[in-house]
Specification:
four-stranded mixed β-sheet; four-stranded antiparallel β-sheet; 34 strands; Topoisomerase, domain 3; Topoisomerase II, domain 5; elongated; Gyrase A, domain 2
């Protein structure tokens, strides 16, 4: 009723509607299906192109026609979204194995847009055909389209391992997915191994597929343990670098030539980024850059001096530009029961193989049923061929010829109908021989299908044969050859030694309001140093111009500054937030000269922490690097040197705990483990020290050392006991 009004709590109405929106985004837009690796828009595109008979050996059709069919029949969304999805499926630099073959301008690696859909044409590739193979043999379920006038497949038969081969990316409500592309031949090899050894673990599978294989090539510079951990959990990331080589010139000159850039990096934007850094004098080793790309990528870098080492030049570029990228792995997919889950590599392969097993059973049953129906008709044909004159007489003389044939020859209704529909030319003797030959072939095929359906081992052997065929077809040649080289973790390069910076002592001064500057020499104190009105000294650090300074913030991120680049003189310096992309609500906890070989203890206010190497704290980009993963209510609390063998932890409840440093894990990034147990409050301070030297702290102007620490020794995550007499009321070792 139009005048009916129902009172509903606003919170209930909003939550109900938002939940419906969230589920729609997750199920219908952002997450791929683990079985065919496709989102609904891609699946509808491929199926619509099949209905248009756009097979690989057929002609092309205008993309506008394809988009119109998809939008009108299956996908009631904007034409731009559908065309963008089609364009991506056709770009060989965006997908490892294109599902659409495009004709016309479909964009390029520079980031140029494709032509309008009225100018471009498309058809399916053989990879897409493999995904569709068997769709007309009851291999998958169909459902009604949005308007109920058509039918669309819920999932494709997926004779090709599309999820891992082409990868996926998407952002839903409260979850996301990011799966890099892989080599199809390697995926098939891993799947075959999993069939033959169902208990195979991640290590065994990685022997066959060692890592991602990006369309744009490049070098995968990630250590084996990190790769294994990523595939074991379904979460992680991979560092990818550009492929480069040194070209020698005249008179001892040389240049570094980049021929492959990381996946999803636009070449034009990369060139612009490097040019901006050169103009800002952020790349002191780079003298000149030229883009000589044509059909292939070719970017030439010339050093400022012949004395610069090529590795040092490229290391500065990798640290500061998109020539090195980190591609995240988050294998969040929709399982066969339409549930979003993060799956490890083994379960992703298992889900695809189980789907192929179901498809094989359904196709075999469909073929067996079709063979039985055809054999029934052929049996009827063979019966009447023995007495054609009687058949003709019944048809000519009886009013109900079907019933007459059924009575005279003992035929079924289907057989009688087929005989009545038979053409006269089929009464030839040669046709009778063809029918007997077909009958024999179908009988043999039916027995083979029955044996296949009754033996699971035979079915898996058939799947292995299919996988070997896919591996042979798509795993070799220009399309199948591996493009990304598994290079392992890169060798550390001392860039500082190559930088044209004069080494001299300086003192870094950070004020309370965040102004940063450097003073010449090592100052004993800040006497004589002036600050803005209302401002004062916060941190003072003695270092050298060649040092890299680590800035650890309350959001758990670490930023890097070059000491030689800091403003000097008698001025107030620069706000540190201008130099770093530090959010206004985040505060700086500490600033120190980072040593790559050193180790540091980082921890949150809730007492979770771990040990991190100095090399892992270095972040050349303004955005810094996330080191300590924090929950909503957490903030970072400390980052102190981990020089010693024991850790002393003090809580806000003033309880002290001492435990071995070996109980803390060493990580590059993470949430850490619990250092101390708290009933109320959190972490006040922590310190790493040598037990033999005793635990020291400042008490006023004096420094006290306690060597008898047996009472406070324990294991990590214990509560601890009240500290010795004279320990600062602030709960901090510094006083």
């Amino acid at each position: 009723m139009p005048d009916h009004i129902e009172d509903v709590r606003l919170a209930d109405a909003l939550s109900e509607r938002y939940l419906a929106y969230a589920l729609s985004t997750i199920m219908q837009r952002s997450l791929p299906d683990v079985r065919d690796g496709l989102k609904p828009v891609h699946r509808r595109l491929i199926y619509a192109m099949r209905l248009l008979r756009l097979d690989p050996d057929a002609g092309f059709k205008k993309c506008a026609r394809i988009v119109g069919d998809v939008m009108g029949k299956f996908h009631p969304h904007g034409d731009a979204a559908i065309y963008d999805a089609m364009v991506r499926l056709a770009q060989d630099f965006a997908v490892r194995y294109p599902l659409v073959e495009g004709q016309g301008n479909f964009g390029n690696i520079d980031g140029d847009n494709p032509a309008a859909m009225r100018y471009t044409e498309a058809r399916l590739t053989e990879v897409a055909q493999a995904l569709l193979d068997g769709i007309n043999e009851n291999a998958v379920d169909f459902r009604a389209t949005y308007d109920g006038e058509e039918q669309e497949p819920e999932v494709l038969p997926a004779g090709f391992p599309n999820l891992l081969a082409n990868g996926a990316a998407g952002i839903a409500v409260g979850m996301a997915t990011s799966i890099p592309p892989h080599n199809a031949g390697e995926i098939c090899s891993a799947a075959i191994h999993l069939i033959r050894d169902p208990g195979a673990g991640t290590d065994a599978l990685l022997q066959h597929m060692p890592g991602p294989d990006f369309p744009t090539g490049g070098l995968l510079v990630e250590n084996a343990d990190a790769i294994r951990a990523a595939y074991e959990t379904g979460r992680g990331g991979f560092r990818v670098r550009a492929r480069w080589a040194v070209e020698q010139g005249r008179f001892g000159t040389w240049s570094a030539v980049v021929t492959e850039i990381p996946y999803q990096v636009q070449k034009t934007r990369l060139i612009e980024q490097i040019a901006e850094l050169m103009e800002a004098k952020k790349l002191p080793l780079l003298g000149d850059m030229r883009d000589e790309s044509a059909e292939t990528v070719r970017i030439v870098f010339e050093p400022r001096s012949r004395t610069v080492e090529p590795e040092a030049l490229m290391e500065t570029l990798f640290r500061a530009t998109a020539l090195e990228q980190r591609f995240p792995l988050n294998m969040n997919v929709l399982t066969a029961d339409r549930t979003p889950r993060v799956l490890p590599l083994r379960e992703v392969l298992r889900a695809w193989l189980d789907h192929r097993h179901v498809v094989l059973i359904r196709r075999s049953r469909h073929r067996l049923e079709a063979a039985r129906k055809r054999l029934e008709i052929l049996d009827g044909f063979l019966k009447v061929f023995l007495n054609l004159d009687e058949v003709i007489r019944i048809i000519r003389e009886q009013d109900d010829a079907k019933a007459g044939l059924m009575r005279a020859f003992g035929l079924s209704e289907v057989q009688a109908e087929a005989i009545l529909n038979m053409r006269l030319r089929s009464l030839r003797r040669l046709e009778e021989m063809e029918i007997k030959r077909e009958h024999k072939t179908l009988t043999r095929e039916g027995k083979e299908l029955e044996r296949l359906l009754g033996d699971e081992k035979l079915r898996w052997a058939r799947i292995v044969t299919e996988l070997e065929a896919i591996r042979e077809k798509f795993g070799d040649g220009p399309l199948g050859a591996r493009r990304t080289t598994i290079a392992g973790a890169p060798v550390a390069v001392d860039v500082d030694a190559a930088l044209p910076v004069e080494r001299e002592p300086i003192t870094v001064l950070l004020s309370e309001k965040g102004w940063l500057r450097a003073a010449r020499g090592h100052l004993a104190d800040a006497e004589g140093q002036k600050f803005k009105e209302g401002d004062a000294l916060r941190l003072m650090l003695a270092c050298e111009t060649t040092d890299r300074l680590a800035v650890f913030a309350s959001d758990g991120r670490c930023y890097t500054l070059r000491a030689g680049d800091l403003p000097r003189g008698r001025g107030d310096g620069q706000p540190i937030r201008v130099m770093l992309d530090l959010a206004a609500e985040d505060d700086i906890l500490t600033l120190f000269a980072c040593r790559e070989a050193a180790r540091y203890l980082v921890a949150s206010n809730t007492g979770r922490g771990f040990v991190v190497r100095g090399a892992d704290l270095i972040a050349e980009k303004r955005t810094g690097k996330q080191i300590l993963n924090l929950k909503d209510s957490e903030t970072a609390r400390i980052c102190v040197p981990a020089e010693g063998d024991h850790v002393a932890v003090v809580g806000e409840n003033r309880k002290l705990l001492v435990f071995p440093l070996a109980e803390l894990p060493e990580m590059a990034r993470g949430a850490g483990v619990q250092l101390q147990k708290y009933r109320e409050g959190g972490l006040a301070d922590a310190k790493v020290f040598r037990l033999a030297d005793g635990l020291s702290w400042k008490s006023g102007e004096r420094t006290r050392t306690e060597t008898g620490l047996r009472e406070w020794l324990g294991e990590r995550a214990q509560a601890g006991k009240m500290p010795p007499a004279g320990f600062p009321r602030s709960g901090r070792f510094g006083g």
